[in-house]
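ok trying again, last paste got cut off:
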Amino acid sequence: MASHARPKPRRIPRTLLRAGLTVSAAGAALAAGGTAHADVIPTTSADTNATASALTGALTTSVGGALHPIKTLQLNPLAKTPVDPLTNGVGTQVADFKPIGTQLLTGTLARGGALQDLPLVGPVTRILPG
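nice, full thing came through this time. structure:
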């Protein structure tokens, strides 16, 4: 058979190979670390429950503390300045319908609102800790 007529072997892209090797190495490191830890320290169910509750409390506290600045950070850096483009509004009224304008959407951001002050996202952020 001529060389140009032979079927070409399917090649795996290099990025997929690198990603697979990275995941495999990380899994092996985690497995080795977990095995060494399990051999050194025998645990009982009371120790496990105490450790789990301590970790849960620590995670809740650290995540809550980390999310609070994100929820209260001013989203628009130009808010309350004379050059803020969101303070400009356009409105219209058709016939006898209620007037509508862009201030409804941009007003909160123009006043220096945070993530928790936004109309649709604000109630959702109250679920998050912090």
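cool. The first strand starts at residue 91 and ends at 92. Strands lie at 91-92, 100-101.
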